[in-house]
Amino acid sequence: MNNQHRPSKRPRTAFGDATGTSTDAGSQQQQQQQQQQPSTASTSIAASDQANVEERDVILDLYSLIESKQWQEATIRAKEHPETISDCSREPSMLALCCREGAPYECIEAVVNAAPHKIRELLDARGTPLHEAIVCESTDPRVVAYLLQLDERLETTGTGPSTTQRRAAISQDVDGYTPLHLVIRRRFQSHVLGTDQASPMLEILELLVQSCAEAIVISDRGEYEEPPIVMALKADVYAPMLQSDAEETTMAQIERHIYNMVECMLQHYPQAASRVFKGYRGHYTALHSAVFHGRSPDTIALLLDAERRAPSPQKACLLGNTQGELPLHFCAMRGEPPRTVRLLAEAAPEAITQRDASGLTPMHWLWIRFVSTLLAMEDGRGNFITLPLRRHRSQEQNDALAFASLRQSDFDADLQLLRRIDPSVDFLRMRHIPVEVQEESDALHWAEKTALLLMGIRDRFQNTTGGDNATETVPLNRLEAVATLFWVKVTSLLGILARDGVEEGSEDGQLAKAKLVKTAFESECCPPLVARLVALLLPEELSSPDASGRVALHYAAMRPWHAWAWPREDGTSDAASLRLLHLESGSLLRNAMSLSPQEAAKQIDCDGRLPLHYMISTCIQACSAGGRSACEDPLLEMVEILGYFVQLNPESLNVRDPRTGLYPFLQASAEATEARLTNTYSGTIHEEFPLSIVYLLLREDPSHIQRGSS
To answer: Where is the signal peptide (predicted)?
Structure first.
């Protein structure tokens, strides 16, 4: 074959022929290089996987070190790998785990420096790392202080992911507990029992309060929605080992520690004392909780003082629950110490006269609880002890109380003494009214017995303390001591009422202080037998007129016949409280008449009126008022008492009433007519009731018809 017929070769180019030898060699070399070296993408993926493995190993290693509490190694690793800790999204965070396990300050610091925003990371079931630190009892207070400083710093810098989150100090776990809740709930028992001799509880509590005072009033999510101030006041309730027959020393420790917690909170946030919370029985304040749970008078004084420093429109002492019970009601119902009674009454004298939903005042409850204690002692349920009765002449005291001071001027001694003599009752028994209190004859027995006891104590005391020795004592048995405590409470309330009715700076101030009998018979808050007891102890006041020229009988005749005391026509007034209040004003008036000298019925006051004139007005007003039934019992009681008035002073029928210028029977007629014309009530008492009073007075001396028309 000729060579010219062979296919010609393609010309070479600088890049070589696409099908030529040079091109094939380059392709093979490139393929070999591709097979020998991985691609750039594969290299990046592999490097990333390797980094992830290393990071995962570091995380696992750190968690393992923390869980095994190898704090030194964990601290070193945390400092070496801060970015790993910062980026870790595992729950719980390393900071939370460190706080849970009680890591030392240095380890916490290293972890925090790597991821400060983790302080506000909230797990519903566990809370924030700060919650974890509080729950761990081995946590150093320095750690808590450091975490709180970090929490504050994040709040003020305004940078970082945690600034949009709530502060750790007020964050709430699944139960609604803030760290302040937890320090009380989880640490109080061991703190009191001294299982940790150097318990930092109060130090940690103060750190929390200083850092974020508003946490004091944040309610939890429990049944009672309690803020820390309330949880502190009932801290012993959450300490089961403190509930069973606590010794007196333990009881004193409980009160002292609760006092310290409340003092710390109110020092930094006094507004907590007047904050109103929503509770099981309506709205309440910290004061309600303190009295209800029987806190010491010193703690009560803390709350009242804080409220004075940071007052609110609603005064705590005058806030009632759904049953109309004020703190003073709680105090009387439980049988709290005299100083607590006095503190509450002085803070709000109006509370003394307030009635709860059952119609009872604090003084009614004092009498009920006193008789209940006497009944328990009579049944042998009381421990019979002998103790001293001490007089403190340095204190300003009413003469009526001079023989009845049991205070030792020492926190623990006062608490132990009073709780031993007359322990408070719990919430299950505090509203119980014994049958013996409801029966007038039984109650009269206790009143007479108490009067004799107190007279004997006073005589012994006066005979023993004739000199100037300020600390002489008189031994008392428990029955005498209980009677003495009751006397102090009653006369304290009456003394406050007497002072409250006199303008400040009045020259009659001292006179009003001494008129306890007058106040007892005048005030609607005082039960008849309590007034009788006061009159038996201070009989000279029955015949001693006050600045208005009135004696106790005047005030008893002026006291209104309250609707509570008016029995129902259908006889369904079976409630214990209503039986106790049955015809109360009539009973009180009978006691005043039986104890007063006959001259008291002839005493004309500065307005020219006799007790009879006031009694007529009171009866007409009661019969004409709305809300009464048509029951005849009150009318029969009034008619009988008016008859006694006339017997004590027959000449009173011939004395015109200065207000109307009429003789008594015409006074009654005029006032009855006036009441009928002005009365807008529906369903009032039958009109013949007032007319029965007119008829009685006229029947006593029919000649007044002729005299009255002239």
So the answer is: none
**3-class DSSP assignment, residue 272:** helix
pLDDT grade for 282, boundaries at 50, 70 and 90: confident
Nearest by Cα to 520 from 702, 332, 363: 363
- Coil/strand/helix, residue 97: helix
For the beta carbon of residue 98, count every other beta carbon within 10 angstroms: 30
Query: Nearest to residue 217, comparing CAs of 284, 282, 166, 156?
Result: 284
The arithmetic mean of pLDDT across residues 326-330, rounded, is 97
**Rounded Cα–Cα distance for residues 479 and 273 (Å):** 37
What is the average pLDDT across 141-167?
79
DSSP code per residue over 289-307: HHHHTT--HHHHHHHHHHH
Asked if residue 248 lies in contact with residue 266, where contact means CB atoms within 8 angstroms, the answer is: no
DSSP 237-256: GG-GGGTSS--HHHHHHHHH
Q: Torsion-angle region of residue 158: left (phi > 0), alpha (psi -120 to 50) or beta? A: left
Per-residue CA distances from 388 to 84, 341, 477, 484 (Å): 71, 22, 9, 12
Residue type, 333: M
- Contacts of residue 42, Cβ cutoff 8 Å, sequence gap at least 6: none
Arithmetic mean of pLDDT, 60-78: 90
Secondary structure of residue 473 in the 3-state scheme: strand
Q: Which residues of 381-408 are buried (b: 16+ CB within 10 A; e: fewer)?
A: ebeeeebebbbeeeeebeebbbbbbbbb
Instruction: Report the alpha-carbon distance of residue 165 to residue 262 in Å, rounded.
Output: 29
485 Cβ contact partners less than 8 Å away, ≥ 6 residues apart: 337, 338, 406, 418, 421, 422
Q: Distance (Å, rounded) from C-alpha 387 to C-alpha 476? A: 5
Strand segments (E) across 403-552: 473-477
DSSP secondary structure string for all residues of 494-534: HHHHHHHTS-TT-TTHHHHHH-HHHHHHH-TTS-HHHHHHH
